[in-house]
Request: fold
Amino acid sequence: MTENTQTQPRLVAMLMALALAMFAFAVWGLPPLYTLMCDVLNINTRTSAEAYQAEAVVVDPNRRVTVKFIAINNEGMRWEFQPNDTTLSVTPGVISETAFYAKNPTSEIMIGQAIPSVLPPSAASYFHKTECFCFNQQRLAAGKSVNMPLRFIVDSKLPAEIQTITLTYSLFDTTKSPGVIITDAPDSITQ
Amino acid sequence: MAHGPAKGLSRWLYSTNHKDIGTLYLWFSFVMFIVGGSFAMIIRAELFQPGLQLVQPDFFNQMTTMHGLVMIFGAIMPAFVGLANWMLPLMIGAPDMALPRMNNWSFWLLPFSFVILGSTLFMEGGAPNFGWTAYAPLSTTYGPPSTTFFIFAVHVMGASSIMGAINIVVTVLNMRAPGMTMMKMPLFAWTWLITAFLLIAVMPVLAGVVTMMLMDIHFGTSFFHAAGGGDPVLFQHAFWFFGHPEVYIIILPAFGVVSQIIPTFARKPLFGYSSMVYATAAIAFLSFVVWAHHMYTVGMPVAGEMYFMLATMLIAVPTGVKVFNWVATMFRGSITLETPMLFCIAFIVLFTTGGFSGVMLSLAPSDFQYHDSYFVVAHFHYVMVAGAVFSMSAAVYYWLPKWSGRMYSEVMGKTHFWVSFIGFNLTFFPQHFVGLAGMPRRIPDYNMIFADWNMVSSIGAFIYGLSQLLFLFNVIHTLVAGKNIDDPKVWEGAQGLEWTVPTPAPYHTFTRPPQVS
Reply:
C-alpha cells in the first residue's frame, strides 16, 4: 500500500487551512478589496464624503453644465424629502448653491442620513461638494422641517462630452441605528 | 476478507466503507433529484399557459429557488461525490477512501442540511423566494424569515462538500497503487482531483457570502446594505466568485465519466490523454477569473466588460480540446451503442450545443438582450442537465453491473435514453426561442406571444420527468431481477483496475494493492 501515513495529516491540515483561508478571504478580504477596486478604477457613483477645498482655477464663463437633483426616500423612510431646485445650469469652476427640503411628519424624533450618488459615474470625481447635509446625519423633531444647504463646484476639468450630471440623494432612516456611520465624515449630528 | 457489512440500519449509519457511503450518496442524490424535479414540474405546469392557474407568484418564486438549490447542492453534487466514493478507490487500487470516518460524517450532514432547507416550505412566510443566487438586498432586506434557515442549510451542505473534497484529494494523492503515476490515473480521478481543489477553494467563499448575509440580517452590519455604506453589487461579485467555479465543479466530474465510457464502447484508448488533463486544469484555472460575465448588466466599465468577455471566450478553447478528443476517440473505433454510450454521445452533442449558447452569452454587447431571459435558462440546462444528468445516467448504467452483479435490461435502458433525450430537447430547445424573443426568466406569467413554445416546453418537461421514473424502475428492476453476471470485465472493451475485481464488487477490495505496470 502506498498510503503515506507520514504526509497524510499534513496534507489534510493544509487543505483545511486552505478552506479556512478562503473563508477569511471572503469575509475580511473581499469587501475592502471591492471598495479599493471601485476607488482605483474610478467606477464609484459615490462622491467624496469630505468637504472639498476650493482651488483657484481658470473659469470658462461660456461653458454651462446642467445639474439635476433627485431626492428619494429609501424603503420605510417617512420624511418628506425634495430638492428646492430640480435643475440648475452651472458654470464649471464656480461655486453653486441649492438646498433640499426635509420634513419629519411623524410624532417622533427621527434621524436621517442622505447618501449621494452621481450619474454618469465618470462625472463622480468631478463633482465636488464644499458643504453638504450628507456629510452629517440629520435629526428632526416631530413635525419639524428644515432646508438643508448644498454648495458644490463642478470641476472645470469635467470632460467636455458630459453636459448633464444627475445628483441623487437617497434618504435612509437611521433612527434605530444612529451609531452606524455611513460616510467617512465626522458623525456630528446637526440640529 | 476481514469482515462483511454490519447488519441492519447500523450498517448505513456507522459505515466507513466507501462502497456503502457511495451507495448512500447515490440514493440520496436520486431522492433529491426527484424532489427538485417535482418543483420543476410545478413550475412547468404553471407555465403551461399564460396567466396564473395553479400557484401564486410568491410560491412560484419559492419553487424556482428551491428547484435550483436542491438540484445543484442536493442532486448533482452528491451524485458525483457518491460516484467518486464508489469508483475512485477501485480505479486507483486503494482499499478505501483515505479518511473513512470523515467520509461518513460528510454524507450524514447532507440529509440534515436538506431537512433544514426543505422545512422552510412549511414556515410562515414560505421558503426562500429570491432565486438560488440569493442576490442582496432581495434576500437580506426583503427575504422571508426563513432566509436564516437557508443560510444554515448552505453552511451545513458546504461543510459536507469541503470534507468530501478533502477526502478525495487525500485519497487520490496518497493512496494510489504502486506504479500508478499521476499521468497513468484514469481521467475520472484527474477531473475529480481538480474538482476537489475547486470545491475547497470556493465553497468557503459561499459560506463567507451567506455569513455576511446572516450578519446583515441579524447583527446590524452593512456588507450589502447601501444605507450603512455597503454595496449590493459586492454580493454579486462575491457570489459569482464562488458561482462560476461551481459550474465547473458540476461539469468536470461529468467530463471524467464520459472520458471513461467512450473508450470502452469505441474500443480505442482515449485520444489525447495528457491534453485532456491539461485542458481540465486550464478550465479550472480560468473559472476563477471570469465570474463577472454573469453580471454584465450591473454597470461595469467597458474595460471590465472587455476583459471578462475575452477571458470567458478563452474557456471555449480547452473545452473544444475536450470535445475534439472525445470525437477523435470515437473516430474509426468499433463503436457499439449500449445505453451508457448513447448517453455519452448525447452528452457530447447537447453539451456542445449548450457551449455554443454559452459563447453567445459571453458576448457582453449581446448579453444585454439575453440577460435574465429564457435563453439563459435554456443555456444552463443544456450544460447542466445534458452535461451532469446525462453523464450521471451513463455512469449508472455503465457501473451498475459492477456494483450489483446484475445486468440491466438493454431494451429498458435504451427506452429510458430515447424518452429522456426527446423530452429534454422538447423542454429546453424552445426556451432558446422564447428567450431570444424576450421572455424573462423567473416569472409565473408571460405574454401571450410566448404561449405555444411554453406549452411545448411543458409537455417536454412532463415527458422528461416521467422518463426519470423509468430510470428508477430500471435500477430497481436490475437490482431485483437483473440477469446475474460474474465476468469481472462486464464490458468487452473496458479498461482499468475497477474491472479487475470480481463482479459484483466485494465489500472489501484491494486489501493488497495491485501492481500497475
Summary: Chain B is about 65% helix and 0% strand. The mean pLDDT of chain B is 95. The longest helix of chain B spans residues 57-92.
